[in-house]
Design goal:
Order of helices and strands: HHH
Strand content: under 5%
Number of strands: 0
Radius of gyration: 22 Å
Shape: elongated
Number of helices: 3
Length: 72
């Protein structure tokens, strides 16, 4: 079984690859920003001396830490 590689196909569809790279970069930036907005307050609450802040944040953190990423 012979397979012939046609590298010009990649060049013909270069704009699809570039658009995919742009979308990937955008999703990465949004994910990091959302993670900071949610994670930083939760982390600070977890480190608080006030129990009404510490226990709920600990429960949320442990819940998401113990579930697989695909489930989330």
């Amino acid at each position: 079984m012979d397979y012939v590689w046609h590298p010009y196909i990649i060049w013909d569809h270069r704009f699809v690859f570039i658009r995919g790279a742009i979308i990937t970069a955008e999703l990465t930036i949004y994910s990091v920003a959302l993670g900071l907005v949610i994670g930083l307050p939760l982390g600070l609450m977890r480190d608080s001396k006030l129990s009404f802040l510490r226990y709920p944040s600990a429960a949320i953190i442990e819940f998401f830490r113990s579930t697989p990423t695909l489930v989330q």
